Structure formats: structure tokens, C-alpha cells
Structure prediction request, 566 residues.
Amino acid sequence: MLNNQYALNRIKEAFGDHITDAAESYGMLTVSVNKEAYFNLIKFLKEDAELNCMFLTDLTGIHDPGRVNEELGVIVHLHNLAANFRIRVKTFASSEHHSIKSLIPLFKGANWMERETFDFFGIHFSGHPNMKRILNVDDMDYHPLLKQYPMEDQTREDKNNKYFGR
Amino acid sequence: MSKTDNNTTAVQEKEYNILNLGPTHPATHGIFQNVLKMDGEIIVEAEPTIGYIHRAFEKIAERRPFYQITTLTDRLNYCSSPINNMGWHMTVEKLIGAQLPKKVDYMRVIVMELSRIADHIICNSVIAVDTGALTGFTYVFQWREKIYELFEEICGARLTTNIGRIGGFERDFSDKFYTKLNAFLNEFPDKWKEFESLVSRNRIFMDRTVGCGPISADMALEYSFTGPNLRAAGVDYDVRVMNPYSSYQDFDFIIPVGTSGDTYDRYMVRNEEIWQSMSIIKQALEKMPAGKHHADIPEFYLPPKEEVYSTMEGLIWHFKIVMGETEIPKGEVYHSVEGGNGELGFYLVSDGGRAPFRLHFRRPCFIYYQAYPEMVKGGMLSDAIITMSSMNVIAGELDA
Prediction:
């Protein structure tokens, strides 16, 4: 029976030290992997006969300036449709070196999801055939979901961040 | 094309036409641009450009308290806003660990299935319009109107509904709602049968749609298809069954699947889903449990106005909720619901602040629309139009 513990054991067996963190969050197994092993882990999850996570549910990014040297993250949700088993894989990279291997060889659907992540976070996916912006205009010169770009005009004085969110 | 003098002997290179379909074309139902490379009337290559109505919802959400994000979700798939609203509410409830009364679940199921019907009415009748059959559309469009009247009865709004609250509904369904709902349930089946008898076995409609814009099950999975488009290709994945939320496990319904994943199958799957949704609504009405229309979570669910004006606790909770000062647990959660066109997922990362640290919408049509060039390649231009309308791509959701 495929469950979180079993899946985690299989992953640790195969990847050992590459796994930097593993937790269960609201029932979903969450595995963090270093970016060298990221592609291989996803490939393993997809191609292993038992884990069989053949469906890419979602791929997105995150920016957390608080995590020094691993500010940028890619978060992948995979789904084994046959056994109804979901898993979340995360990998982190620093703001300077954030080239991560593209998942397109495994999932064609990763194409636009990676473009969206590039568009909003500037994370570069190596091997992507068409690494350009998708939702924002092509000549935009920044990546808007990075935390250094606040939502509102910072010259305004009538709004105090303390009272109006971060 | 430039002419040179020394190419008279060389084999003449084939010339293609570049055709801009969109961004504003009456047949594309929204702002979609496709740059088509045409060989006569055959599409050789298609390149979609998206993002024309991008509104940066994920960024805006990072500054809003949780209850204000509901209005952003309205504007994703605006053909079935209540599903988005409730998907978001359920995501927050999952994060805070709220226990909901069974009654809320059933009320939600009724509203979500109504919006699924509204969504499918639009999509299917518009496929017919794009094949030239305007009549069917004019017959059934008023039934979406009736559904909107039902929403109006619950929450006062029609298109961007902002329906329900975190923790349930702001008020119980009124008697008038039940009267109207029963009238809808009695009258709509005949009308939809009429539409089906006009369109489903219509010779012209079938000639236009059978084998048009097909996608195989393998390819659909590869492209992360979900919803009716995936089921039309023969994969019986439905979030309502696979990961039941809002007590969907209490209801008896079937998941229709197609075989070839073409436009006709997508149409037929949606047709059958309308009947299944009708049946789910009837079951929910029959089994509607007694109880409260909201959960007991004073830190998220606004107290009744009488309490706000007469008691201290009421006033404090009201103030805290409105100002977004309630305690939010830290954590990350993924929750998905079966939206009108596929798995609508919410990936929420909370750092304990009043607004999400990161909120990502898994928008089904953003993900499956990328297969569009492959689906229309080698087909006629007119097939590309109906392939797009049968995929149920909603601009608001596509561009978020």
C-alpha cells in the first residue's frame, strides 16, 4: 500500500543525502531536494512502478528573502492518479545561481508552468525551449512576485504597513 | 516577399500565410491571440499569446486578509465563480482546521453544482453557435439567467458572486430560494432535452465536431489536462470522487467519460455532467440536514449584527475580522476542487501573517490551453475555432 511513510523510505533509499528536508503538511508528503538531484527525483517519482506519480498537478515558485542562499524555490505537486497519492517536491536555489533543470522532458505540461515561474520569479529553467515571459509584457525588466517589489506605492504616507499588512 | 534574380532554378520554397487570430475576434470569446501559420486553410503552426487581462492576483493576494481574497477568485473562472469562492473558503478552512456542519457542505454542493450547470450551458451552447447553430443557444441561455437569479437570492450578486464566507454562508437559504430552485429543477430538464435533441445528433453538428481537435488520453495526461477535457479523452479523474470535499462522498453520481477526446466527446461529457449535477442537487435537497448554516469559528466568521451592536465580544470579533487581525496558523496547504473546467487548486503558504505569504492558483485552463497548438495542427481554421470553444478556456482564469 502506497503511503507517505513508504514513499519517503523509497525516496531516501534512492537519494539519501540529496534530500534536505521531509515533512508531512496537512496530509501531503513534502520533500525538499537539492537542485542537483531535483530532476532525477521527479524522474524517479514518475518512472518508478510503485510510486508512479505520472501526473504533474502544479509547478510554481516562491521567494523567501529570509532563507539565506536559498531564496528562490520551485514547488512541484505530483499526483499518482491510480493510487490517489499526492506528493509535493521542493527545491531551492540562491538569487544568484537559480538555474534549475526543466521538467519538459518528463511532462509536456511543465512548459507554461515553468514560463510562468520564470516570468514572476526570474527562475531560469535550463533546457526549456522557449524561456520567455508568458503573462507579463516582454519588455518588463523585473520579476513582479519577488518580495522586494511591494504592492503599493511606497511614497504614500497615508498607509502604514503596520496596519495594512506586510 | 522579396524577390531575387538568381533563384529561378532553385525549388521554390513553399509560402505560408501568417494569420492573426485575435486578440479581439468575435469567435474567440475572450481576449486570446493566436498567430497561425497557414498553408491555405490548413494550420501548420499555432502560437498562442496570453496575458492580455493579467491582473496580478497572486501579488494582490499577498497583501489582503484571507476573507478579501474571495473576491479575487470570483474573477478567475467567471462562468462558475461560486466554485472558486468555495474552493478558496475550503482551503482556508483546511489551514485553520475548521469543522463544518454537514448542512454547510450540502448547501455548498447545491451552489457548486448549479454553477457547474451554468458553466456547461455556456460552453456547450457556444460550441453549437460556433458551428453555426445559433438557435440552441437562444433557447438555453435564459436558463443560465435563472441560475444567476438563484445566486442573487443567496448573496445578492450574479456574476462575481463572492458567495459564502470562510466557515459557511452569511445566511441560510431563503424560502424564496427553495421555491425558485424547485421551479428550476422542474423546468430545466425539458429545455435541456430540447437543446440536446436540436444539437447532439444533428448531422451538421456531428460532421463539424466528430474527430475535430482530438487529444489522446496519454497526451492529455502528459499535458496535465483535468476536468471534462481529460474525461473526454477517457480518463475518469474527477476531484469530487478522488478526493471528496464538501461531503461529495454522500452523493451517488457517475463520471461520464469519452473515448476519442475530440470536440464531440467534450460536448457529450459536459452534457452528461449537467444531468449528473441535476441529480446531485436533487439528492442534496432531499437529504439536507438540519443545523446551522455556518461553523462555530468566531475568529473567522462574522458575528450577527445584533451581537455586534449589543455585546462586547461581538464587537471585538467583528473588528478583528474586518481589520484582518485574527491569528492565522503557519503552514502550507494544497486544496483542490473540481471547477467548471478542471482541477482548480489553491496552494497557500502562510507564515502566520494576516495575508498569505504566497498564494498560487492552479488554474486548469492555463495548463491545458498550452496543448492547443498541438490539437489544431493539421486541421482547418474553422476547426480551430470550435476546438477552442469546446476546451472551455476562460480568459479570466487563463491570465489570472
About this structure: The longest strand of chain A covers residues 55-63. The interface with chain B takes residues 25-26, 28, 30, 54-58, 60, 62-64, 75, 77, 81, 84, 86, 88, 107-109, 111-113, 116, 120, 133-137, 144-145, 151-152, 163-166 of chain A (CB under 8 Å). The radius of gyration of chain A is 18 Å.
